Amino acid sequence: MRHVPAPSPSTALGRRRLLQGAGGLGALAGLGALSSCAGADARASDDIAFWHPMSGPDGETMGELLEGYMATGGAAEVTQTVLAAGAPYYTKLAMASAGGRAPDFAVMHASRVTAHAQGGLLDPWDLDLLAELGVTQEQFPARIWEKMEVGGDLVAVALDSHPFVLFYNTEIAKAAGVLDSSGLLMPVSTPEEFRAMALELGAQSSSGYGLSWGYLGDGVNQWRMFSTYYSQMGGTIDLPVGGRMEYQEDIAVAAIEWILSLIDGEVGNPGHDVGTAVSEFGTGSSGGYFGGVWEIGSFRDSGVPFDMTMIPGVFGEPTAYADSHTFVLPHQSNPDEQRRRTVHAVVAHLLKHSIDWAGAGHIPAFTPVIEDPAYAQLEPQSHYADAIDHLVYDPQAWFTGSGADFHNYFGDEMQNVWARRIDPLQGWNAFVARIDALLQKPTPM
Amino acid sequence: MTATDGLAAPTRASAAPSPPDRREDPSPARVRRHRAENIRGWAYMAPFLVAFGLFLIWPTIYGLWMSLTGVSLAGTKDEFIGLDNWAEALSDGQVWSSLGNTAWFTVLSTIPLVVIAMGLAVLVNLGLPGQWFWRLSFFMPFLLASTVISQFWIWMYNPQLGLINEFLGWFGLTGPAWLQDPNTAMISVVITTVWWTIGFNFLLYLAALQNIPQQLYEAAALDGAGGWRKFASITLPQLAPITVLVLVLQLLNSLKVFDQIYQMTGGGPGGATRPIMLYIYEVGFTGYRLGYASAISYIYFFLIITISIAYVVISSRRSVKA
Q: Where are the strands (E) in A36-100, listed by range?
């Protein structure tokens, strides 16, 4: 039998007293309006509150998946609250969890899970209950399961992984003669081969560029690219709190120089932000595009003929910088057991139907879905499914991960390197100094 | 008013016998009426006082307490740590560089936002045809949200596809990556800010210009004053009070800059445009260190208070000398 914590009298009374006081004052009666964004105990008992940051095609797909769940017999109502992605989302989630009145479940990136769990902001999932619902550890790739466990507890249930990949224009690639007999991009295994292929693509493109990559003012995309090649070269980063960043300087500089060679004005455009890079590839003006799998929707809408592949491992094993959307139980002071059971059932349903989620580009984390023949028929999704065996997440620290400041700091210090105003080592050292200073500060988790 | 006038007045008042004060009539009816008026007064003020106390006074006191603790957004470590956060903030290079950025932004934005606003208002006030069009044109951007403005100008500044570099290209010039070059990022944000917000100052000046009595200009014209002379000797002095108001409002707005920088550059590149408000936001809301963010806020608060007091003292000394 699961332990149900006793209600905390101080919390409940405190809030009640405040509201009573506000009601007495009359002027604060408007506070009642706040109840719509309140935590679990302010709603009807069978209404499940779900927060997530997904908008656009991802948000639509999530909505359809939830509709699917609610159409099943005996299902509860699930109310979605879609919040602005990135830092604002995590701020709100952390505040709600710290107050103990969080939504019943929420989406969180795997890269943020450890820090939030260590800070006591996440409640653990019930493994037995998940198993009862047909969800077990063996059904997840080891790398992903490892990211979901903290201190022996399962604190997140991964829905997917969404790696940084290479899109390519199939018509341009065909004209450039870089497709193999099955119509896929020819494999390349050295930097020289990759560059030659990119130049071939560029020669057939109206923009003259073989690759589009948006980086201006976007530290996240800069980090994705850097992390991909740095890890291909065997580079690792450790961030010991109270210590100094541990890394391989020569590999870092080599990775930066390689990226610079891809935005030299010959292979790729030297001055794109993400929007213009998407636009360049989406209008069929360039041969390839480095980006996240979620761009599938944009490129389908634009009508450009494209396929996708993992970024070739020209410096060794291919790697895929990635993050994963996971389901978490933000900390509640007074969790309702029945509602928690329902949340487990909702998540089990979403995992089992994540073939629909794959339609938006994400690689499902639930292996039975990937192994389903229906997934193999999904194109181009199945063409980069191998990425799930080569995922590289952010180094672990309380300030890393999606929506955290780590990527912004990288972008801040490296922008001048991409613009060729300072040399790679100078930019890298400035970034390291910034991170070292952060490591010396007290952790807020 | 001279210094003597100002000092003598209370002496005269205290020396003269006080006239009988009807308000001190102790009749019970009057006392009851007075009490009722008092209660009504407090009742009218109560909503404001409650809101003021809840949303300004209490947060201000609580923020000061937070700055003395290690409280985090994650709800942990709220133990008292004394002045550790303050000491850390004073030795944090990012605090000083973002303060410097704030000061630089304030200087760069305030001057054109006062001078150009006045110039535009004077031009429009000359009686040019289609006044409604000029007023609308100058004021319209102010009505737009900062997100709209930011996105609009991000596209304008785009080094590859932006209108600005396209325009420069017509003359054979290659423009920089405006928002990504540390040499041009701040000035780019300032240009956007001036374009966006000048309408408000422009309207204040326009209203002030329309309040200047026409007789002054007519008298000056009779004395043979030309356009420039009228501007220098009538318009400018008559605009002095509104200029002080515009300047103070503008300084306060510029010192609080956040929205457009957050959206256009995120404080980059390399922190070249990060104002103190953005750093406080980063530390407190994305870095979760509320105690430390509070300490930086208070340092900034005290800095502004110190400058304000110095300004008031210097101004009052000047007026006393005058």
A: 47-52, 77-82
